């Protein structure tokens, strides 16, 4: 299995001050399409957001000498931030005209963009709303396939859809970092199948103690600092002893 590319003491998902805080800060923008008449289902939006993060991580433009590679390196050299905004109608069409990737789920559309400076958003994205991004599931989600990757949400936390979308993206990224090149390729070639579900209380307690990638939020918005939000349960990470079970911290907004 591959090692996390960042030493634990310098992880961009830790909340303690580090040299990463001194680097220029970047953010990965995600925009979810929410039309008044046909909003997406909440769970589908969360799953689509996670796949969008994986898609840009795996894109050839994000690696080597690709056109997004510099921005991706700058982003990952600092704190790993993700911000979800919402758009509809003309706002969505303007967002689609900017360089990025649109990922479509069953009812959700999420566009992910290469990272931008924290204070340097393109105006057509900066004007989009962050707050108020809340969604519902018309029907309860079906049980997750135990043979597929599952991003398990903390049952004790109430998060808006936008916040939960960013947290699911963090968890997907942690799982991606932990996989070997062969496992990443297999996941990508399969279309990044995954599910996002809220764990039952007993299951959550079990999941947080077995060494799977765990997102711990920095507490900038909605929830208390240090809150554990999502566990990334990928089959490849269950098969072998993996990692130290560290709690990885996020700097989401």
TrEMBL record:
Q: Name the enzyme's class.
A: hydrolase
Keyword set includes Hydrolase? yes
A GO MF label: hydrolase activity
Q: Which InterPro entries does this chain map to?
A: Pep_tRNA_hydro_II_dom_sf, PTH2
Catalyses which reaction(s): an N-acyl-L-alpha-aminoacyl-tRNA + H2O = an N-acyl-L-amino acid + a tRNA + H(+)
EC annotation from Swiss-Prot or TrEMBL: 3.1.1.29
Instruction: Give the domain of life.
Output: Bacteria
Alphabetically sorted, this entry's keywords are: Hydrolase
Region (Disordered) spans which residues?
1-21
| Family to which this protein belongs | Belongs to the PTH2 family.
Q: Which PANTHER family match?
A: PEPTIDYL-TRNA HYDROLASE 2, PEPTIDYL-TRNA HYDROLASE 2, MITOCHONDRIAL
Protein name according to UniProt? peptidyl-tRNA hydrolase
- Taxonomic path: Bacteria, Bacillati, Actinomycetota, Actinomycetes, Kitasatosporales
């Amino acid at each position: 299995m591959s090692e996390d590319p960042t030493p634990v003491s310098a992880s961009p998902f830790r909340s303690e001050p580090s040299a990463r805080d001194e680097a220029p800060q970047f953010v990965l923008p995600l925009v979810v399409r929410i039309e008044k008449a046909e909003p997406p289902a909440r769970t589908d939006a969360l799953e689509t957001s996670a796949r969008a993060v994986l898609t840009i991580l795996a894109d050839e433009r994000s690696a080597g000498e690709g056109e997004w590679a510099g921005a991706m390196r700058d982003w990952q050299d600092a704190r790993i931030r993700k911000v979800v905004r919402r758009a509809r109608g003309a706002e969505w069409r303007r967002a689609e005209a900017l360089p990025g990737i649109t990922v479509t789920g069953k009812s959700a559309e999420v566009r992910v963009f290469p990272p931008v400076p924290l204070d340097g958003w393109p105006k057509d994205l900066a004007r989009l709303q962050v707050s108020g991004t809340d969604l519902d599931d018309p029907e309860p989600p079906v049980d997750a396939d135990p043979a597929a990757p599952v991003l398990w949400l903390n049952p004790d936390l109430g998060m808006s859809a936008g916040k939960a979308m960013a947290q699911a993206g963090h968890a997907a990224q942690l799982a991606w970092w932990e996989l070997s090149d062969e496992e990443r390729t297999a996941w990508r070639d399969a279309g990044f199948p995954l599910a996002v579900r809220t764990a039952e209380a007993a299951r959550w307690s079990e999941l947080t103690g077995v060494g799977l990638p765990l997102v711990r939020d920095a507490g900038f918005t909605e929830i208390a600092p240090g809150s554990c939000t999502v566990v990334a349960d990928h089959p490849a990470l269950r098969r072998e002893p993996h990692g130290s079970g560290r709690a990885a911290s996020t700097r989401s907004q």
